[in-house]
Amino acid sequence: GFEMNINRVIQVGKQSILVIFLTLTAAFLTAFLVGKRLRVHNKLATLIGVGTAICGGSAIAAAAPAIEADDEDVSFAISTIFLFNIIAVFLFPFAGRLLHMSDTGFGMWAGTAINDTSSVVAASFSFSDAAGNFATIVKLTRSLMIVPITLVLALITAKNIKSTNNNFQFIKVFPWFVVGFLAAAIVNSLGWIPAKIAATLVQLGKFLIIMAMAAIGLNTNLRSFIKTSPKAILLGASTWLAVMLVSLAAQLVIQIW
Fold this sequence. Notes:
Elements: H1 6-38, H2 42-53, H3 56-67, H4 71-98, H5 103-113, H6 117-127, H7 129-143, H8 146-162, H9 170-173, H10 177-189, H11 195-218, H12 222-254
């Protein structure tokens, strides 16, 4: 949240919101339909869809408690998403030049179709500085979708639990980190804290996420992952391909490219 500037997000968001909405829809529909076809269970399919649609490992970590996913599902989803992050860093700049994309067009494509923020930055800045700057803001705009998506997932989970547990209370499953996320973004946008402190808090947040991911990794059964991974990887590939193609098609229609 401390790397979000609401004013800049709003400005770029006006250009990118339609493409973001279309790629989110493509990701979730593909994850659901292909997941059913491959018989990948709902929680893992949801996490792969969320990770592809929004912002990789961070979105998966955020959505997991909202749907009560276990560590194994989180680990499988993150491993799948990270595989395509690595591929994207090399594939996107090459494809962008092959397609003769503009800086803005490539920035929009990278910002809406690459999973993780770090991979977006790496791929887009290797194309050009202008593309990198635009893609970064588009990606931060896309990352804000964590808030409504997590709330919707929590509500769906709450409804399912309530049907089998009369003592259920929504306040216990509400993703309270969302409140902190929005508060941090607002504080940063209003300039209430120095830029150096905000940057330090961003790095601290990333470090804590890395610690959490490492802890999940230590609790992962590699034998089980290898056995299950082909379906997860195929689902991740299908979802990512859908997002890439929808992003390109949307740009052609609205003439950003």
